[in-house]
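User: Hey, my collaborator sent me this sequence without any context and asked if I could get a structure. I don't really work with proteins. Can you help?
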Amino acid sequence: MPLPPPAPRALKHVRRVTYQGFEREDGLWDIEGELHDSKAYDVTSARSGGTRRAGEPIHHMWLRVTVDNTLTVQAIAVAMDAHPLRGCTEAQASLQRMVGCSMARGWRQAIQQHLGGVEGCTHLRELLFNLATAAFQSATAAFQPASDDLPPRHLGQCKGWDFSGEGVKEHYPRFYKDKSQIGL
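Assistant: No problem. I've predicted the 3D structure and written it out in structure-token form, which is a compact way to encode the shape of the chain:
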């Protein structure tokens, strides 16, 4: 269902973010993210005197994070084809600090700890934040609980997977809790 019709407006900025998950032959997973920012109009830089044409990237960056079945980072590759400032590329090396971190628990805190402030790049951090979601969608084994007595990790984490909701009742009936059972 589309959004309701908007008020009259003019396009100024476009951000495209794409994530893809790949299962590797060696049992690991490659999760890739791409970020592309552009303006819908020509921009002249006072600093350089050059003009960036509408649609040309201001930011165009990629990440490939390799994880195992526990979603522990094994390797990271980064490419920055477009960036607005000379110092931007200096943030690439700091991404290696994320090797060994877990996407399953404490991912955002690890990103902030290792890449926060001037240690990293705002746009690469943004790509990393949501890369974990793509990893969960790709490496479904990460959702499996350690024991059959435990519910999968994603239950109870959003409205659709509410323990008292229809999603759990239909797909995981053994973990379903009627609202009257839990005092709601």
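In plain terms: The longest strand covers residues 13-23. You can pass these tokens on to your collaborator as they are.
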